[in-house]
Every structure is written in C-alpha cells, then in structure tokens.
Model the fold of this input.
Amino acid sequence: MKDTMTLIPLLIVLGAIGIPVLVYAALGVGEGILRTFPPVLRRSARPWVWLSLPILLIVLILLYPVIDTIRTSFKNARVDDWVGLDNYLWAFSGTMLEVIGNNVLWLIAFPLCVVVLALITAVLFDKVKYEPFAVTIAVLPTAISFTAGAVIWGQMYSFQPAGMAQFGTINGFLSLFGIKPVAWLIEPVINNFALIFIAVWLQLGIATLILSSAIKNVGDDMVEAARLDGAGDFRVFFSIILPNILPSVLVVLTTMIIAALKVFDIVYVMTNGNFGTDVIANRLYYELFAMNNLGHASAIAVVLLITALPVALINIHQFRTEAGK
Amino acid sequence: MTMTDTTMPASAPFKRQRKLPRLSRFVVHGVVVLFMASWLLPILALLVSSFRRQADTAASGWWWAFLRPNFTMQNYTLALDQLDIAGSLTTSVAIALPTTIITVLLSLIGAYALVRMQFRGRMALSLALVALLVTPPQITLVPLLKLYYTFGISGTIPGIWLYQVGFTLPFGVFLLRGFIASIPAELYEAAELDGASQLRIFRSVVMPLARPIMASLGLMAFLWSWNDLLTPLLFMGGSSHAAPVTVNLAGLANQTSQGQGPLMAATFLSVIIPLFLIVALQRYFVRGILGGAVKG
Done:
C-alpha cells in the first residue's frame, strides 16, 4: 500500500507536467525537421506533423476498436469462429427483448422529461431576479457522478414494508399523508421511471443552461409586438418563444438521447439490472465479465452504435451547412 | 446562428421584466422556490446523513436529525480510513488531473491545425470528428481490453489517461475549433509578418487568447474523468493502487456491511471536489456546454 502511495505523486508530475512538455517538445522537433524541407513540401507536411498525435490517439482508442468490435460481433463467444448473424438474432430475442424495451423506455422518457422540465425551468427562471442562483442550483447535480447520484437517490427511494417507520425521504414524506409506501426500485415499471428520474436530476442543468440562453436570444421586439397584440403568456410561449428556440430544443433532445443510450452507472449501482430494469449497456458488461461471451457483447455494442448513428448523421449534416456558410 | 457565437457569454445583461399580475407572480415564485428546494433536497439529505450516528441512521429517517440533533464525525474517519476513500481520492486525482491537462493540450494542437492549416482531407477529418462525438464508449471496450492486456498497460493509471484522452479528444477539438475559428485572421497575419514561427504563434497568440475556452474544456474533461465509472471499472482491475473513487463507491453501494453512515460520508467526500469546481467555475461550464452543443 505504502509504496504505491509514493508512486502516485510521481505519476501526477509525469502526467500533468512531463507528458505535456514532451508533446510540446515533439512539436518543436517536428517543426525543426520541417524547416529543412523546401517551402512547398513544408506547407503540405506541416498539418500532419501537428495532427499526428491527436489522430493516432483517436484511431487507437476509437476507430480501431469500432472496426474490431463490428468484426467480433459476427464471431462466437471465444472469437475463434464466424457465426454469421447469430449474435444479432440473439440480441433481438428472449431476455434481450425486455432489455431493449427498457432502453426504448429510457430513449423516450428520459429526453422528453428533461426537455419539458428544462423548458419550464428556463421560462420561469427568466422571470425572477434570483435567476443566477436558481440556475446554479439546477446545475449542481451535473457535477455529481452517476455513481454518487445513485447512492444519493438510494436514500431518497429507500423502502420499508407498510406499517413500519419509513427512512426513505419520499416514502417518509408520503407517510405524512397516510399514503402507503412504494417500493420504488422493485415495483415493475415504476422502478424504471425511478431510475430515469435520477438521470433527469443529474442532467437537467445542462438542458436548462442551453434553453435559457436560447430564450434570451429571442428578440424582445418580437415578444413585445405579440404582447401589444394582446397575446398572453402561454400564447407568447407557444407561438413566439418555442418556435424560435426549436433548434436548441433539438440539441437538448439529441444530447439526452445519446446519454440515455449509454446509461450504465445508475442501473449497475442501483439494481444491477434486477427487477426488470436491465439496459443494454449493463447487459453488455454482464456478457463480457460474467458470461465471457465476446460475440454477444460485441453485437450489443454494435446495436448501441447503430442507434446512435442517426444523431451522428444529423450532426454531420448540420456541420456541413454551418461550414458552407 | 454560427458555431462561434455560441461561445459568447450566456446571459444577456438585462432581463425581460414585465410586471406580472400579483397572483401569477406568486405562482412563478412558488414554483421556482419549490423546484430549488426539491433539487437541493437529495444533496442536503446526503450531507445530514453523513454526520448522523450509526444508531440513529438505523432507527429513523435523516430528517429526524433536525428534531434531535446528535452529530458525529465518525463516519468520515471510518470512510477515509477503513473504506480507503483517502486512497481512492488520491487515485482519482492521479487519473483526472493528467487526463485533463493532456486533453486540453492535444485538443488545442489539433484544433489549431484543423482551423489554420490548409490541406486535403481537412473537411473529411472535421466530419469524422463530428461523427465520433456520439460514439458509445461500450463499443470500444472488447478490443481495447485485449490491446491493454497485450501491451501490459491494463491496471495502470497511464492506461486510463490514454483511454480518457483519446475518448474526449473529438469533443475537445470540436469545442476549441469553434473558438479558434473566431479569432480574427489579421492577428495571425500580423504575427506571420513579424516572422513568428507556427509554434511561436501557437504559444504567444493562440494559447493566451484561448485561455477561457481551454478552462471550459479543462473543467468538463476533469468532471468526466473524475465521474467516469465504466473505464476504471474495466481497465483498473488487478491494480495495486486504491480503486478510483467511483469504483470504490459502486462497490460499497452493493454491500451493506459498512452501514449507511460511512457510505454517505464516502459519497459526500467524492462529490466535494466536483461541486466546488462547478460553483467556482460556473461561467466556464456554461461556455463549454453552449460551445460544445452542435446547433441543430
């Protein structure tokens, strides 16, 4: 134990100072070599000197694994024989159907819940003087890990059988009104929503930030004109503000869809997929470590990637239009 | 709307303050205050529980602490010592700090080259970056586990740097790219006329100007690294170091032997640094969020 403790400060110095200095020095060496090149060649070689490290890392950590996983997804558990589409047939059958169903629920309920709540908070915060303070409070949970969030909400959802004293915050509150306690994490369907709400609590701040900045960019003259025409608050919101901030709403939706796809920590810590709450990412972990089935795990991963693909295409399309301007 | 103006400060200086009727003003304040209270409640509950005595936690809900105050620091000494949260926090710092600095530096280098240098394949490279923004981390796990074992970097802290830096780079380059493109070209041209080398321009023009957006990226990279469970869970197996704080917490949450109090103290210790950072650096966080979102 002790000798690893003395190793750690060394590691921090190496990683936080040594490697950055090395990277910068490598750039200097690269530029020095470039100087010996004729000017035309220098210009065309320079970008690759600068980009070599970032590209190398991205290829190693992202590109190569994606390609290799796609290949493995057509192989058996021990990756020594091709099995065609078997892993994919498995991924859409039997117990996997419930898992996929849960992910679909996450994919719909989580982004929707975040967008609706963020619209309400962004609009209402805009009307109060203590907005910065309110925003800070909404943003606080975004700094908390999903793991810590799960522990925190374990205490909120804690359940004792009816008739006993309730230690959980929500059940304790309900018992004040004589309402029977709910087994938030065990009761089917309810437990999925209980888990989803933890993610909402953790991520809402990001959506509130994006939407409230969008609302502030809506022209005041437009809002004023509508008001002069006698439009009420709701009318102004639905016919002026909402259409104008639609692009930002889409940004929030796609961000949250991606987050919903990847959700792992909350389920892993709170229920480990029991009581009908399993999701794809947690199942992948299980296939990998409990079952040692690399083929199954890879097929699940590819399903995740394919689900994220439409969002990637939207982003690319958007990027091209921006760049074309 | 262009990419670049998203890096502007988020809040306009003035507020649309129309006099609302008394009743709806009351409703607005009511809803906002209720929201703030319920959003803070889980953190408050965590804090209070972490100071309660073991016997009290086992007998009543945390809110009884307000009626019968009886606090102790014992949970914290237990968590730091017996649950080795002190070791875990050290490991987490050793992972997150280098990851953050290396990510910011490499992102700045990549973004600068991508914006300021003309070459074939530039657009293709940018598009590939944008596409990679949404890659689920899960798809990289199986091949990288094999690779890490082959090269013997499994279970090492530098192995985690490597993964987290590589995974965050597309976002980092994307975020800084938008900012660097907004720097007026005249600044570079003036420096070039003065005979400054590319490296000199990078160090003396780009780096100082980009400091705020580098802070945004740094904050986000740190939070991601610190809060990441999946990567260290997979790649830190068999390590001689204490488990990073998320891994330690996840393990504690799945067993009940240590009791509720120490678990709550451990959790609170794990969120102190990120909470402090986000409150202190909130404006950088806002910039990061707004600049990083691809406008739809």
